[in-house]
Amino acid sequence: MRIAVVGATGRTGRLVVDLALAAGHTVTAVARDPARLPEYAHGTPLTARADVGRPGSLRGPLSDQDAVVATLGTTGRRTATTLFSDGARELTAALRDGGARHLVTMSSAGLDTSRLPRAQRVVARLVVDRLYREVHHDLARMEAVLAGSDAAWTVVRVPMLKDGPPSPGPQVSYDRPLPRAGTATRATVAHWIVDHLGDPTTFRRLVHLADD
Questions:
Q1: Which of 107, 63, 67, 62 is nearest to 85 (CA)?
Q2: What letters, b where the CB count within 10 A reaches 16 and e where it falls short, cover 70-81?
Q3: Strand-strand pairing, 102-108 and 153-158
Q4: pTM score, two decimals?
Q5: Which residues of 10-40 are buried (b: 16+ CB within 10 A; e: fewer)?
Q6: Per residue in 22-39, pLDDT tens?
Q7: Fewest CB atoms within 10 Å of the CB: 14, 101, 124, 150?
């Protein structure tokens, strides 16, 4: 498959690029500054410069791709942002023009804590939501943009991310929150994404993912 990874300089994006190369895909690593891309263990991707905050800049890099993975992130936890919702608009417009069949984006398990035990719900409301409120608001807007589009998207909702090896048996739930979802390694998330590129059973679904 021909795959573009938007946000390829981030810690999860780098893993997605490397795993996709290892799987034999033709990968385009898309970044605001391609000079910041690392060396990869399993080959060298094509590269493209683009910024989701600049209207139209994704159209060239995402043309003629089979799938697009967006691993966007922001360090401004308490600052209002439109990175994710603006990015979703740019991504869906570029897919519509370029013909890619599948878009995978990341979101937060914190958007729905209804199935967590009561103690964890309290912590989520009093601590996590206060820290990530602005990010969560924009991730919710992003999910609404995707739901209102005609794209074949998959949203992977993850809990707190950490470094480490992939889980041999991650928890996965489609369209319903996991009852226990403490953390997920970036490797777990990257492996799941690469293994399900183009999988029609994931189209237009919220996939909740966490380590075992």
A1: 107
A2: bbbeeeeeeeeb
A3: parallel
A4: 0.90
A5: bebbbbbbbbbbeeebebbbbbeebeebeeb
A6: 999 999 999 999 999 999
A7: 150
